[in-house]
Amino acid sequence: MNKSELIDAMAASAGITKAAAKLALESFLSNVEGTLAKGGRVSLVGFGSWSVSNRAARDGRNPQTGATIQIAAKNVVKFKAGAELEGAVNK
């Protein structure tokens, strides 16, 4: 399912227009993004939670040449599925 298919499904199941569903989805995404950018955590009980973790700098290897390269540190987004979501997927 891509973004436009999700918007269509949200509009159909909630009985709202596609424009309203698009606005709601974009608002949700921007709020999650903003919270994570500040280092916060977003948790939806039963569905899952998003958090930010710092990945330290490390040495890597170029597979073509075998040369050692330095991989910079960066923040990564992590998602942990909630119990209800895992249960729905593993029926």
TrEMBL record:
Belongs to the bacterial histone-like protein family. One of its GO terms (molecular function) is DNA binding. Pfam families: Bac_DNA_binding (PF00216). Keywords: DNA condensation, DNA-binding. It comes from the Bacteria. This is HU family DNA-binding protein.
